[in-house]
Amino acid sequence: MKKIYFLKSCSTNQRILKALDLGDDVILQNIKEDNIDEKTLDYLKERVGSYEALFSKKAMKFRAQGLHEMELTEADFKRYMLAEYTFLRRPFIINEDQVFIGNSKSVVNAAIESFKN
Description:
alpha+beta
């Protein structure tokens, strides 16, 4: 499966999608319109090791809701991401058996290389 979970209104996500030069076999899912499902979130957690690794602590709601002052558990991270797309680090890129999370330069470059092969 080739699928990208992204935020359509995010210029960084748009830049990354252009850089990937995607084919017709890639499914794009705008998480604002259709948030990630629990099964996929669980799959990604298994690939990266924790829900916290998938969670965006840069989200405005993270501070606004006082979450930065709380000790969050893995169950908390999962619950918040399923309830609110803004808590997802993005984009989530799945290219067959490879998973790329976030928009750091090294992650984006690795994702670009994976789509060239």
